[in-house]
């Protein structure tokens, strides 16, 4: 899910709806978490159901943005949804050292 979030917020269209400083902080936090998860993943089994659910979730976001022609308003809806679904993304610096 973190990888999908990272991919979503690195698209060119997402930049118009976000303050660049906040977007940089979010992307940095997601990147650090991805690195940490990659290290942990080596010892864990994959959860196929969770992966499928994550893909469906982000595919839905992609379809929504596409239908709304990637408007700034649509990106704001996605931002709010992301904060609701992933509370730690609201304040990325809070969990950097965990």
From TrEMBL:
Annotated GO CC locations: extracellular space
Give the Pfam families listed for this entry.
Interferon
Which UniProt key words apply to this protein?
A: Antiviral defense, Cytokine, Disulfide bond, Secreted
Signal sequence bounds = none
Under the heading Gene3D superfamilies, the entry gives: 1.20.1250.10
Subcellular compartments: Secreted
MF annotations from Gene Ontology: cytokine activity; cytokine receptor binding
Main localization (coarse): secreted
* Cross-referenced SUPFAM superfamilies: 4-helical cytokines (SSF47266)
Extract the PROSITE patterns matched here: INTERFERON_A_B_D
Name any Gene Ontology BP term: defense response to virus
Return the similarity comment.
Answer: Belongs to the alpha/beta interferon family.
Q: What is this protein called?
A: Uncharacterized protein
Q: Which organism is it from?
A: Eschrichtius robustus
Q: What is the lineage of its organism?
A: Eukaryota, Metazoa, Chordata, Craniata, Vertebrata
């Amino acid at each position: 899910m973190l990888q999908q979030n990272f991919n979503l917020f690195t698209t060119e269209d997402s930049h118009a709806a976000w303050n660049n400083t906040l977007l940089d902080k979010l992307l940095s936090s997601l990147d650090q978490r991805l690195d940490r998860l990659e290290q942990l993943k080596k010892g864990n089994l994959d959860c196929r159901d969770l992966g499928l659910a994550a893909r469906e979730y982000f595919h839905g976001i992609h379809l929504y943005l596409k239908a709304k022609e990637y408007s700034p308003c649509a990106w704001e809806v996605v931002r709010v949804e992301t904060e609701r679904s992933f509370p730690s993304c609201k304040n990325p610096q809070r969990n950097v050292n965990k």
